[in-house]
Design goal:
Layout lengths: L3 H4 L1 H4 L2 H4 L6 H10 L4 E5 L5 H7 L4 E6 L2 H7 L8 E5 L10 E6 L10 H14 E12 L11 H4 L1 E5 L3 E13 L2 E10 L5 E9 L3 H10 L3 E7 L7 E7 L3
Parallel strand pairs: 1-2, 1-4, 2-3, 4-5
Antiparallel strand pairs: 5-11, 6-7, 7-8, 8-9, 10-11
């Protein structure tokens, strides 16, 4: 199940204003151009920023997400009427033959079990045309990003348009092998409401991700560094053989 940050309408509405700089998506837009993609499946599309960006460039886009509250926001954005929105999991996808499938924003890490991860890889494989590519990012566990997910490093007060003052912070709650759990807290000045959202991510190694892609039938063409986060994330480019 998706986290409350995406399913609770009051929290989902904060996603874009709290992270307005989506220059991280420039990498994926450039990759779509690099491979001449004309059709894209955006897995875990969230509030639809990337899907709408591509649709406004005249690409045929399908956006998939299990969080109805996030998709409701996505449908209100410019270009949203040109996106095919699918509410559900990867197994709920209609038949597709796209040039490119993407998982941005570290979506690849939300699949915690081997079965879940294999399932999404196979669903993406089925949706790709022969020769099509799957592109996604995942945090490099060696960088131990979770060390910064503590209140002392994340406590912030922000004034959000149409919301008012908002205090947010993150608490690291558990590190168990590859699984890292944390909790975001949101305190609204307007009414004093305190909402929380718990998350767990899986930090797979480069070798494990590569092996899982090969087992699902992909050829791993390249693993790049994320240019906006050098040394912290890996961008996998995998291909369904022709």
């Amino acid at each position: 199940m998706p986290d409350k940050a995406f399913t609770e309408p009051r929290l989902a509405a904060l996603y874009d204003p709290l992270d307005p700089d989506r220059s991280d998506l420039d990498v994926y837009a450039a990759i779509a151009d690099e491979f001449g993609a004309r059709s894209v499946l955006d897995i875990g599309c969230g509030t639809g920023t990337f899907a709408c960006l591509l649709a406004e460039r005249s690409l045929a886009v399908t956006g998939l997400d299990p969080a109805a509250a996030s998709l409701e926001l996505a449908r209100r954005k410019p270009g949203a009427d040109r996106v095919r929105w699918v509410h559900g999991q990867a197994g709920d996808l209609p038949p597709l033959q796209v040039d490119l499938a993407t998982m941005t924003g570290n979506v690849a890490q939300v699949f915690l079990t081997d079965a879940e991860w294999t399932g999404v890889l196979l669903a993406a494989y089925a949706a790709l045309r022969p020769g099509g590519r799957l592109v996604f990012e995942t945090r490099d566990p060696a960088a131990q990003a979770w060390r910064e997910w503590i209140r002392e490093r994340t406590d912030e007060h922000t004034v959000v348009p149409d919301v008012g003052g908002l205090r947010t912070w993150c608490d690291l709650t558990a590190v168990e092998g590859e699984l890292v759990s944390f909790r975001w807290t949101y305190v609204f000045d307007a009414d004093g409401a305190v909402l929380t959202s718990d998350s767990t991510l899986r930090f797979r190694s480069r070798a494990d991700v590569t092996a899982s892609l090969a087992a699902a039938g992909y050829v791993v063409d390249e693993v790049r560094g994320a240019p906006d986060r050098p040394g912290r994330e890996m961008v996998f480019i995998a291909r369904r053989p022709a």
